[in-house]
Fold:
Amino acid sequence: MKHRFLHGMWLLLALGTIFPAAGDTARPSGSAASTVHATVLWYEVQEPGTAVYPVKTTVTDSYVRMDDDDPESGYILFDRDRHAVYSVNHEEKSILEFSAAPAAIRPPASLGTDEVIVPDKRAPPVGGRQPVHVQLQAGGSTCYEIVVVPGLLAPAAAALAGYAQVLAARQLKHLDEVPADIRTPCYLLRYVYGAGLPYRRGMPIREWDSKGYRRVLVDYRENMPVDVGLFVLPAGYERYRMDSRQDTGSDTGGPADP
Structure:
């Protein structure tokens, strides 16, 4: 399985040790409601050396689910309440999980981070709001750029920021294991110290860098009813946990009912 939309996470998932996970293999079933309202976002993504591919992100009060264009491969599920990430692999019938308590990670002054606003009055309004073009910089270089719509889809933006911060917290714990030539100022900004920055002003509608990464928000729907089954971890799959359960002080178990 290849979750291609996990731009930059190949290194994150390679760090640490994998243990068999104890506990339930799925969330308890039998919820009274068959649907829950969600914000659904459709993206087009391109990474260096790949063609453009679609990604769908479904956000509720309790979960974020990410699906690429191959539903048979699997998906990523983020349990917002437990700060836990589950990578579901249908091909191997397995679930890789990890959790980390999100925290405000202050960048060291030596990193030289900056946000530069690029005026662009020609950009058309989105949802009645004027987009803002921002360059995110570190070490004197522009690491990547975003076009963000202030206030647009604020609850969904907060959920995606929380997901990024959980990834960053785990990345920070294993930072010494990242090869020195990869641990550039831009890498540290993007995946550790500034992981939630793109969502601080609102929802980004475009992201790109000079190496060939692109992500464009092509459509979205708010208050869309979706099946609660989207947030059920498959029963009978092998469960594996990154690192030990001492990472957060408790076993996260499986996701709870929405």
Notes: Residues 19 and 112 are 37 Å apart (CA to CA). The helical segments are 9-14, 154-173, 185-193. The longest helix spans residues 154-173.
